[in-house]
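I am still getting used to C-alpha cells and would like to learn alongside you. Please make up or recall a protein chain and show it to me in full. Would you write everything just below, so we can both look at the same thing?
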Amino acid sequence: MKTRVLVVDDEDGSRTALTLLLSTWGYDVDGAESGEEALERARTFRPAIVIADLIMPGLDGLGVLKALRAELPDTVIVLLTGYATIETAVMAMREGAYDYLTKPVEPGRLSALLERALENVRMVHEVTVLRRQLQEGARAGKLRPIAPEQFVASMMGLLLFPFAIRPALCELLGFDSERWEAFLKERRRMLPDFVMAGLRP
C-alpha cells in the first residue's frame, strides 16, 4: 500500500510541482490549496504525512498543524517556509511539527526527510502495539511475551526519536517529561547488557 501524502500550498505552481515529484517517487498524493481545504481532505484521505506551507491566507500552516495534532495525532507534519529562521523552526517544533523545509524545496533533502518520517511513523505504531499488548495482558492477568529482538528494536528506536515527536511518545507511554528522561537514562544503561544477553546462545 502506498504511503499517503497531503500537500497544502496556496501557490498553484509550487503545489503542483511538489505533488508531481512525490507521485514519481511512488507516494499516493493529494493536494489542497488552503488550510481549510486541507482539514477536509485529511479527514477522508487520512494521510500519513502532511506537507503544508507556513504562510497562507486564512488558516495558515501552524493552524493546520494544531488542528491535525488534535484530530489525527499520528500524522507527521512538515512545514514549508520561504523565510527560514531559527524562530520559525523553534515555533514549528514547539507546536509538534516533525521538521520544516525551505522553499524552493531541495528534492534530496525532501527524500531523506520523508524516509526518516516514515521510520518514525513505523516506530510509533510499534510502540502503540506494544503498549496495547501490555494493557491487554494486564487486564487478562498475564502479560503476553515479547520477543527479545522486538523489544530491543523498539527501545533502540525510542532512543533515536527526534525531540519533536517525544511528546507523542510520552503520551503513549503515560510518562511526564521527568519520567521520560528517567526512562531514556535507564534504557541507555540497560540496553547494551540486554542486547548482549539476547545474543548469547
